[in-house]
Amino acid sequence: MGGLLKARKWILSGTTAPASKSLAHTMLVENGFILPNSKGFYSLLPLGQRVIDKLCRILDAEFQKVGALKISMPIVGTKHLWDKANRWETMGAEMIKFEDRQANPLCLQPTAEEMCTDLVATLSPFKKRQFPLMLYQIGDKFRDEMNPRFGLLRARQFLMKDMYSFATDVESSRETYGHVCRVYDTIFRETLALGDDVIKVEADTGVHGGIISHEYHLKSSLDEDFVNLCGQCGKYNKNESSSSCSTCSENSSKIERFQTIEIGHTFHLGTKYSEALGAKFTGKPLDMCCFGIGVSRLLPAVVDALSVSSKALRFPRAIAPFDAVIIVKKSLMSNVIVEMTSSSAKRYLKGGILLDDRVDMSAGKRIHEANRLGVPFIVVLANETERKTPGRSVHNECKKRRAGITGLDELGAIRLFCPIGHLWLKPRPHFCEFAA
User: Where are the domains of the chain?
Assistant: First the structure.
């Protein structure tokens, strides 16, 4: 995702967003990350696709690190398959159903427990050393939402990471469940640097069924979902009644309810699907878990959690579309300082550098736009740089300052490779933000 990219090609102008309670949705539309196509359906523009690609790379790395195998399954499922676990009817009106030209009932799958279990059953027998077997995909899912809203948060088509694990016994399955949940903690709290903003709470298993499930939430100003915090025991719960807490007293008056957005869900399924679809080892049904992350809904979820105004869109550093933007005054575009700054930035920052070469716009306007792209570093080569540029000595000064550099932090590196430019720094809890 590194390299030098030019704004003239990469930045597509956004469109006016329809009225929405979601500030994140408005900013993603108006700043050119996504484009509404019809109610509940959205296109990812180059900026949005770049954020999604970075997020998918993180998921691939973390799940493959623990032995998960990536696959790809069809988005279309048959009634025959879904009937085996009795979910064709129980999924309700949100399942998008249709028929092919032979009148065979089909659906656009909202999840893939049946298909993945059938895959394992068909590939059996496995060797004992292959367990626990973990298979995952990152692909489109579909849900016929009655009221699509808040953009990618509640869309009819959405990108999801869904993983399914198969173990030879319930104890091994429990170990796998705990291990993958710790991977979730790493991704959300550490890699995306969301820390304590992430809330893990035990939840109902719903139409998936199973033994236990947990949801992962981010606090939000939207009335989309909720969790309760019990002031008596300090634990979160999903009880519909905000005046009860099952983990301590049944009528605690110290319950606080938070509005949230669900970003992940994990289930210990047991043998519900393996029994129904014949996925066995030595004649016994395999014990299963499944693990989901709403990839596309993470975009508005993190923007909603981190941004404080419509003029300052924020992403976690790990998935920001670029690590830095270099804004250059027109009269300096052919100056050696631009090449020196760009090449040095690429050495220290691996998440991509955007060179804002739209010199028909003022530096001030470009700074304003950069602050709405979620880019953590903004380097400006403009009036003060031009006044301080002593011809060829700039090249010598930059070369001298860069020589033998080791162990620099990123801020020190940027100041070194841009010794006479402007740099704006304003620390925030999760990352560094640069703004005028």
Answer: 12-306, 322-433
* CA-to-CA separations, 402 to 11, 139, 386, 407, in angstroms, rounded: 31, 44, 21, 12
Render pLDDT for 374-386 as a digit per residue (tens, 0 to 9). Answer: 988 888 886 555 5
| % pLDDT > 70, the chain | 84
Torsion of CA 227, 188, 44, 22, to 10 degrees: 30
Q: CATH assignment of 12-306, given 1.10.530.10, 3.30.930.10, 3.30.70.3420, 1.10.10.60?
A: 3.30.930.10
pLDDT for 119-173, tens place per residue?
Answer: 999 998 999 999 999 999 999 999 999 999 999 999 999 999 999 999 999 999 9
CA distance 82 to 338: 59
Q: What is the structure's pLDDT at 35?
A: 95
- Owner of token pair 């993983």: 163
Which contiguous run of DSSP H or E holds residue 218? strand 212-219
CATH number for the domain formed by residue range(s) 322-433: 3.40.50
Measured from the Cβ of residue 119, the count of other Cβ atoms closer than 10 Å reads: 17
Cβ-defined contacts of 40-44 (< 8 Å, 24+) = 40/145, 40/148, 40/154, 40/155, 40/156, 40/157, 41/155, 41/156, 41/157, 42/151, 42/152, 42/155, 42/157, 44/296
Contact 367, 373 (CB under 8 A): no
175 phi and psi, to 5 degrees? Answer: -65, -45
- The continuous run of DSSP H or E covering 280 comes out as strand 280-281
Helix/strand/coil for 268: strand
Give the CA count within 13 Å in the CB-facing half-sphere of 210: 28
Which residues are registered as beta bridge partners of 260? 219, 225
Task: Record the tokens describing residue 50, joined without a space.
Answer: 């770049």
- pLDDT tens column, 78-133: 999 999 999 999 999 999 999 999 999 999 999 999 999 999 999 989 999 999 99
* Global model pTM greater than 0.70: yes
Q: Angle, to 10 degrees, between the axis of helix 336-348 and the axis of helix 410-417? A: 160
Which residue in 206, 214, 189, 209 sits closest to 264, CA to CA?
A: 214
Cα separation, 207 vs 209, in Å, equals 5
| Closest-CA residue to 139 (of 187, 77, 201, 80) | 77
pLDDT value at 417 more than 70: no
